[in-house]
């Protein structure tokens, strides 16, 4: 495996290529964040059906993340990431063709909300969206799990916070700040256009990854082994390591609960923006979502300093409290400007959490297990997103039986925010600074060079 670059100047050429790939891929993801849900909202007003598109995209984190970790620890990580981008390119381009063929005559979301009949091609488009979302989700699981194991091979471990912070800044800027409003503009030109543009961006991303210099096969006994994979044994090794590590286990459980609760609300944000905030243009929805992105960029720039000033444990507690309060107030204040500003606040806290916890995992998990333990971590942390997505759709559908639609949509934000605040007690006991420092010291001891002694 290539040695990390020295700390003298910058983060190195490989890091710049990795950053360029992440920028292109996440700009495409930002386009999809608007295009998929906007297309679904132009087909149906049923909250549960729209939620199912999100479930299809997130379900692979529940069913495929553990095998993905084994694969990440056995094969060249650069090639895995690159080929997953190629697979996503093919799926996105094919979906673009389907949308192009069926987009003529689709009503606008505003027309559907006013009582226009759902289009005859609606069921076919919902099925196509679900199938494409499922395939994209599978590729994303393997790509993203592998990408997080790549960073310690690209930069020195002492620069992980700096490298991760810049990467998060680029990813969130493109994914949530530039991509959504651009997606809204492209939708106004042609509903299929965001899909074709994303295909081109994924081609750029794959090219940057394939251009990384060196070999990125993981260290360890199983790396690159051509023998038959012991799926149960290798997954079990990663699972046992995580479960026996008190800090990483606690972070995984917390992340799972936080992601489940946040997606109870955010999976239906497109309907909230349309029916509560009364914004029915694609570019307006994209613009409203940039609040989170602006906060994420700000959070990525200040995360290292915030962590140093507050200590890592306190920074994590502040992040949970900030996320909970922000989401709760989003449901209470049904106006555009407060919604955007609260998105800024939420974005800051989410990225502080991400920078701290991703850097901790990269520092604490042995390289030979990094892919598998990361996959188990994401199984807990991301697998629950599908559960939260279903719960959000069900809560709105059931809530409409006893509440006005506006309050049914508001209620999921209230449930989400209050639920996150209730996690503070568990977090204060299990992920405090003392626990973090003890885990870091143990990792330094276990990874210290050993010398042979003779009599």
Percent helix range? over 70%
Any idea what the shape is? globular
Give start-end ranges of low-pLDDT stretches. 1-8, 221-226, 450-455
Secondary-structure element order, N to C: HHHHHHHHHHHHHHHHHHH
- Give the terminus-to-terminus CA distance: 35 Å
Helical segment tally? 19
Largest sheet: none
**Count of extended strands:** 0
Radius of gyration: 22 Å
Mean pLDDT: 83
Strand fraction band? under 5%
In terms of structural class, how would the helical and strand content be classed?
Answer: mainly alpha
Task: Give a structural overview.
The protein has 455 residues and is mostly helical. The protein is built from 19 helices and no strands.
Descriptive keywords:
single chain; 455 residues; mainly alpha; 19 helices; 78% helix; disordered C terminus
Furnish the topology, listing elements before pairings.
Layout: H1 13-41, H2 47-63, H3 65-72, H4 77-102, H5 109-113, H6 122-154, H7 160-189, H8 193-210, H9 231-244, H10 246-266, H11 269-275, H12 282-288, H13 290-310, H14 312-332, H15 336-364, H16 370-399, H17 405-421, H18 424-430, H19 433-447
Helix pairs in contact: 1-2, 1-6, 1-7, 1-8, 2-6, 2-16, 3-6, 3-9, 3-16, 4-6, 4-8, 6-16, 7-12, 7-13, 7-15, 9-16, 10-16, 10-17, 11-17, 13-14, 13-15, 14-15, 14-17, 16-17
Provide a quick synopsis of the model.
The protein is mainly α. It contains 19 helices and no strands.
């Amino acid at each position: 495996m290539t040695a990390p670059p020295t700390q003298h100047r910058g983060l190195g050429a490989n890091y710049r290529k990795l950053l360029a790939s992440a920028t292109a891929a996440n700009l495409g993801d930002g386009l999809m964040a608007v295009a998929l849900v906007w297309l679904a909202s132009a087909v149906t007003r049923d909250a549960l059906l729209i939620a199912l598109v999100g479930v299809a995209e997130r379900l692979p984190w529940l069913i495929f993340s553990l095998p993905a970790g084994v694969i990440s620890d056995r094969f060249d990580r650069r090639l895995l990431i690159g080929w997953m981008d190629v697979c996503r390119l093919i799926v996105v381009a094919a979906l673009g063709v389907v949308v192009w063929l069926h987009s003529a005559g689709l009503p606008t979301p505003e027309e559907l909300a006013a009582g226009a009949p759902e289009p005859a091609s609606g069921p076919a488009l919902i099925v196509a969206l679900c199938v494409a979302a499922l395939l994209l989700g599978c590729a994303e699981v393997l790509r993203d799990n592998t990408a997080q194991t790549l960073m310690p091979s690209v930069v020195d471990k002492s620069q992980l916070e700096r490298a991760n912070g810049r990467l998060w800044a680029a990813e969130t800027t493109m994914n949530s700040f530039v991509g959504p409003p651009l997606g809204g503009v492209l939708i106004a030109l042609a509903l299929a256009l965001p899909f074709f543009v994303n295909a081109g961006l994924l081609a750029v991303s794959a090219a940057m990854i394939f251009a990384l210099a060196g070999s990125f096969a993981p260290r360890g006994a199983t790396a690159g082994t051509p023998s038959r994979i012991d799926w149960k044994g290798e997954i079990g090794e990663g699972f046992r390591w995580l479960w026996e590590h008190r800090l990483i286990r606690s972070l995984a459980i917390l992340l799972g609960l936080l992601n489940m609760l946040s997606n109870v609300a955010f999976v239906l944000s497109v309907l909230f923006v349309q029916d509560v905030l009364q914004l029915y243009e694609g570019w307006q929805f994209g613009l409203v979502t940039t609040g989170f992105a602006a906060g994420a960029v700000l959070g990525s720039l200040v995360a290292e300093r915030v962590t140093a000033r507050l200590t890592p444990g306190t920074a994590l507690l502040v992040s949970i409290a900030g996320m909970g309060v922000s989401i709760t107030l989003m449901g209470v204040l049904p106006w555009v400007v407060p919604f955007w500003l609260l998105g800024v606040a939420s974005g800051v806290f989410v990225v502080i959490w991400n920078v701290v916890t991703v850097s901790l995992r990269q520092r604490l998990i042995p390289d030979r297990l990094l892919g598998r333990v990361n996959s188990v971590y994401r199984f807990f942390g991301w697998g629950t997103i599908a559960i939260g997505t279903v719960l959000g759709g069900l809560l709105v559908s059931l809530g409409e039986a006893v509440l006005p639609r506006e309050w049914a949509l508001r209620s999921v934000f209230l449930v989400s925010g209050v639920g996150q605040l209730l996690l503070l007690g568990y977090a204060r006991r299990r992920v405090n600074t003392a626990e973090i420092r003890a885990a870091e010291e143990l990792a330094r001891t276990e990874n210290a060079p050993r010398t042979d002694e003779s009599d």
